[in-house]
UniProtKB/TrEMBL annotation:
Residues 393-473 form the PEP-utilising enzyme mobile domain. The keyword Calcium does not apply. This is Pyruvate, phosphate dikinase. One of its GO terms (molecular function) is pyruvate, phosphate dikinase activity. Pfam families: His_Phos_1, PEP-utilizers, PPDK_N. CDD domains: HP_PGM_like (cd07067). Residues 56-260 form the Pyruvate phosphate dikinase AMP/ATP-binding domain. InterPro entries: ATP_grasp_subdomain_1 (IPR013815), His_Pase_superF_clade-1 (IPR013078), His_PPase_superfam (IPR029033), PEP-util_enz_mobile_dom (IPR008279), Phosphohistidine_dom_sf (IPR036637), PPDK_AMP/ATP-bd (IPR002192), Pyruvate_phosphate_dikinase (IPR010121). Residues 494-530 are annotated as: Disordered. Keywords: Kinase, Pyruvate, Transferase.
C-alpha cells in the first residue's frame, strides 16, 4: 500500500502532484544543501481521501506516530511528552501555489504543560505565552471564529469550543495535530480557495498536501525574525535580492500584510551572517532553476532556516529583463529566453505611469508593489468591490488584505493598502492577478464602517475617483494624465520575430486616451420599437485540452487550430475569451485564421458555477459539498451577467466566437432552451466542440449545434469527458 506520509529529505521521491509544490521545493532545498528544519509531508492522496470520506484515511494515525517519532529523534525534543517541548507547523501545500488561500497552523504541540516547559527552558515566559496565543489564534481563525486582536487565551479557547459544537481544543499534542490536518484539508474547499482556483485555472479535484515541520521561532528574541525573499526584484527584474523582513516576528506577520515590514537589505545591518547565508542560498537556488527564485525563511538566534523555495513569478517587464540577462550570461539559450516570455508580457513592457506626479492632486504615497496604473472608484470592503466591479472600475482600499478579500481583489482594477510590504498578501495576490497595487501607505486610514478613507488631512467617501501608480507608489484624486515609459532597449532582442500584444494592460484605459471601439452589439440597443435587429450568431466552445497547470497541451493547441480552420469561412467579427490562460491561448490560436476579428477578454466568460440546485443529483453532491450561500450567489451573479451581455439579439448582423469553459457553455445552452436552471448539469461539452446559438428579435433563440466535433479527428474528440464509451 502506498504510504500516506513521506519524510522530506534529499532522497525523497515524488512530484508536486503528490507531495505538493511546497514539499517538493523543500526536497530540492535539501539536495542543494540549504538549512531546512526536519519535516514530513502528508500527501495529496490523503487529502483527497479525507474530502471523499469525511475522515482521515485508515492507517494515517499509525504513520503520523512514526513520523513524529522521527522528528523527535532529529530534534532531540518531545512532542507532548516530558522534556524539551517539540512544536511543529502544519502548512498547506498544493501542487500549484495558492498564496494565503488555505490554512496554516503554527506552534502545534504547545499544550498547557509544554508551554510551561518552554517558558522554563528559555527563561522567557512572555515568548512562550505569545507562541501559545499564536497557536490558538491560528486555530480559531481557521475554524471561522474571527478572533479579535486583544483576545486572551481563555477567550480564544471559548471561541474554538463554540465553533466545534462544544468540543474543547485538545490539550494533547497528537489531538492538536489531528485537528490541524483536518482543518488544512478542509480549507481546500473554502470559497476563497475555490475562487482562486477558478481565476487561475487550477482544477478543483487535486487536493492539497500538508507539510508538518519542526518549528523555528522568529519571535524568539531580538536576533530572530522572518521574511520572504526574491533573488531578483520581481517588479523590475533588477539583479539584486528583494523582499521583506520583520525582526522578532513569525512568518505569518510578514505574509499577512498586517505589519509594515523592513526592506530585505535591513538584514545586512542587523544580522550580517544571516544576510550572507540568505544571499548564498538564493544564488544556489537560482543557479539550479536557471531562473529567479522565491524563498520564505526564518532565523532564530542568528541562524537561518529555509521554509519554502520555488521559482519566482515576475511581472512582464521583469520577466523579459530576467530572460534577456540570463541569456546574456549564458545561463539559458536565446531560444529558451524567447520561449519563457509570452507575447502578452512583451506587449506590456511599456507600463503606464502618472505623467506628472508633482502636478497631480496627490492623496498619499506608498510602496509601488505591482507596476501599472489603475483608475476607479473607492471601495473599502471586498463585498462592495465585488458588487461594483462588473460594471464600474473599482480601487479596493483596505487597511490590509486577507484571503477573505479575494473576491474583491479579483473584481478591482487596482489595490491600495495602508499596511504591508511588497511581499505581503495584497502585493502577492495583486501580482498574480495582474492588478496594479500600492501598499504600505502609512498615512492612510480606512474606515469600512463609514465607507471612508482619510489621508493627507482629507476624508473621502466611497465612490470617489482615484488613480494609483503601481510603479511610483503615487495615489492621486481623479484621473490625471498618464505617460507610457519606453521599454529597456536591451530587451528588444527578446521580441524579435514576435508580434506584441497591445501595449496597455487590458484592465487599464488611460483616461486621456480615446477608448477602444465598442462593437455595436456590446451595448444595449436603443429603446426604439422601429430599431431593426438582425441575427446574432454565437459560436461557443470550451477551450482546448489543458494540463494540470492550466496550459494547453499539444493536443489542445491542435484542437484550437482545427477549430479556427473550421470557422475561417465565416465572417467572424470578434473572438471573446475567458480571462483564464487556457481560454486565452485557445482564442489566440484560432484567431490566426480569422484576420478581421478582434480578440478580447470578457470577464463574464470566466469559469464559474452558474447555479447550485437546492437538491443536487447524487453524482454531483460531493462536488457541491461545502459550497456556501455566498459562493453560490456570486456564481449566480456571474451567470446573470453572462446572459445579459451575450444572450440577446444585436442591432446589426454579427458573428462572435466565445472561448470559455464547460459550465458557461452549458448555462447559455440551458438559457436558449428556456430549461429549468438545474438543467445545466446535464449539458457538458468536449474541448473545442462547437455549439452555435442564433438570437433574433421577436423569436426564441435557435440552438443550431451542440457539442459538434466534426472538425476534430477521432483522437482529439471527447477530451474533457471522463472515461467511458463515447459515440
Amino acid at each position: 500500500m502506498t504510504p500516506w506520509i513521506r519524510p522530506l529529505t534529499a532522497t525523497t521521491e515524488g512530484g508536486p502532484d503528490t507531495l505538493g509544490a511546497k514539499a517538493h521545493g523543500l526536497v530540492l532545498a535539501h539536495r542543494l544543501g540549504l538549512p531546512v528544519p526536519p519535516a514530513f509531508v502528508v500527501t495529496t492522496d490523503a487529502c483527497r481521501a479525507y474530502l471523499r470520506d469525511g475522515r482521515l484515511p485508515g492507517g494515517l494515525h499509525r504513520e503520523l506516530a512514526a513520523a513524529v517519532a522521527r522528528l523527535e529523534a532529529a530534534t532531540g525534543r518531545a512532542f507532548g511528552g516530558p522534556g524539551a517541548p517539540l512544536a511543529v507547523s502544519v502548512r498547506s501545500g498544493a501542487a500549484h501555489s495558492m498564496p494565503g488561500m488555505m490554512t496554516t497552523v503554527l506552534n502545534l504541540g504547545l499544550t498547557t504543560g509544554a508551554t510551561a516547559r518552554l517558558a522554563a527552558e528559555t527563561g522567557d515566559p512572555a515568548f512562550a505565552r505569545d507562541s501559545r496565543r499564536r497557536l490558538l489564534t491560528g486555530i480559531a481563525t481557521a475554524l471561522g471564529a474571527d478572533p479579535a486582536p486583544g483576545d486572551d487565551p481563555d477567550r480564544l479557547l471559548r471561541r474554538i469550543r463554540d465553533r466545534r459544537d462544544g468540543r474543547p481544543f485538545p490539550d494533547d499534542a497528537p489531538g492538536q495535530l489531528t485537528l490541524a490536518l483536518e482543518t488544512v484539508f478542509s480549507s481546500w474547499h473554502t470559497p476563497r480557495a475555490r475562487t482562486y482556483r477558478a481565476l487561475h485555472d487550477i482544477p478543483h479535484d487535486l487536493g492539497t498536501a500538508a507539510v508538518v515541520q519542526a518549528m523555528v521561532f522568529g519571535n524568539r528574541d531580538a536576533r530572530s525574525g522572518s521574511g520572504v525573499a526574491f533573488s531578483r526584484d520581481p517588479t523590475t527584474g533588477a539583479n539584486t535580492p528583494y523582499g521583506d523582513v520583520l525582526f522578532g516576528h513569525q512568518g505569518e506577520d510578514v505574509v499577512s500584510g498586517t505589519a509594515t515590514t523592513h526592506p530585505l537589505p535591513a538584514l545586512a545591518d542587523r544580522e550580517p551572517a544571516v544576510w550572507q547565508a540568505l544571499r548564498a542560498a538564493l544564488h544556489r537556488a537560482e543557479a539550479h532553476y536557471r531562473d529567479a527564485c522565491y524563498a520564505e525563511f526564518t532565523f532564530q538566534a542568528g541562524t537561518l532556516w529555509i521554509l519554502q523555495l520555488r521559482p519566482g513569478r515576475f511581472t512582464s517587464g521583469a520577466a523579459v529583463r530576467l530572460a534577456t540577462e540570463l541569456a546574456d550570461a549564458g545561463v539559458i539559450t536565446r531560444r529558451e529566453a524567447v520561449r519563457r516570455v509570452t507575447p502578452r508580457q512583451l506587449g506590456h513592457l511599456r507600463v503606464p505611469r502618472l505623467a506628472d506626479p508633482a502636478g497631480a492632486d496627490l492623496l498619499t504615497r506608498g510602496i509601488g508593489a505591482v507596476p501599472g496604473v489603475a483608475t476607479g472608484r473607492i471601495a473599502t470592503t471586498a463585498d462592495r468591490a465585488a458588487r461594483l466591479g462588473p460594471g464600474t472600475p473599482v480601487i479596493l482600499v483596505r487597511p490590509e488584505t486577507s484571503p477573505h478579500d479575494l473576491h474583491g481583489l479579483a473584481a478591482a482594477t487596482g489595490v491600495l493598502t495602508a499596511r504591508g510590504g511588497p511581499a505581503g498578501h495584497a502585493a502577492v495576490v495583486a501580482r498574480s492577478l495582474g492588478r496594479p497595487a500600492v501598499v504600505g501607505a502609512r498615512d492612510l486610514t480606512v474606515d469600512p464602517g463609514r465607507g471612508t478613507v482619510t489621508a493627507g488631512g482629507r476624508t473621502l467617501p466611497e465612490g470617489t475617483l482615484l488613480t494609483l501608480d503601481g510603479t511610483g507608489g503615487h495615489v492621486a484624486l481623479g484621473a490625471p494624465p498618464l505617460t507610457t515609459g519606453d521599454a529597456d532597449g536591451r530587451l528588444d532582442r527578446c521580441s524579435a520575430g514576435r508580434t506584441p500584444s497591445p501595449a496597455t494592460p487590458h484592465h487599464v484605459i488611460p483616461p486621456h486616451a480615446s477608448p477602444p471601439r465598442t462593437p455595436p452589439w456590446a451595448t444595449p440597443p436603443p429603446d426604439r420599437k422601429d430599431t431593426p435587429v438582425a441575427t446574432r450568431h454565437l459560436y461557443l466552445l470550451r477551450h482546448g485540452a489543458a494540463d494540470a497547470l492550466g496550459h494547453l497541451t499539444p493536443a489542445g493547441e491542435r484542437q484550437a487550430d482545427l477549430t479556427g480552420r473550421r470557422l475561417a469561412r465565416l465572417p467572424v467579427d470578434a473572438v471573446w475569451h475567458s480571462p483564464l490562460p487556457r481560454a486565452e491561448r485557445s482564442a489566440r490560436i484560432l484567431a490566426t485564421h480569422l484576420p478581421r476579428a478582434t480578440v478580447a477578454a470578457a470577464p463574464e466568460l470566466v469559469d464559474h458555477i452558474p447555479h447550485v440546485p437546492a437538491d443536487p443529483p447524487p453524482a454531483w453532491a460531493p462536488f457541491f459539498d461545502g459550497y456556501d450561500a455566498e459562493e453560490a450567489a456570486a456564481g449566480e451573479r456571474l451567470a446573470d451577467a453572462l446572459t445579459a451581455r451575450f444572450a440577446r439579439p444585436a442591432p446589426a448582423e454579427t458573428h462572435e466566437v466565445l472561448v470559455t469553459h464547460a459550465y458557461p457553455v452549458a448555462w447559455l445552452v440551458r438559457d436558449a432552451l428556456n430549461a429549468p436552471r438545474p438543467a445545466w448539469l446535464g449539458l457538458s461539452c468536449g474541448n473545442t466542440a462547437l455549439t452555435v446559438i442564433e438570437y433574433r428579435d421577436t423569436t426564441t433563440p435557435t440552438l443550431v449545434l451542440h457539442n459538434d466535433m466534426g472538425h476534430l479527428p477521432t483522437d482529439l474528440r471527447w477530451t474533457g469527458f471522463g472515461p467511458g464509451l463515447h459515440p
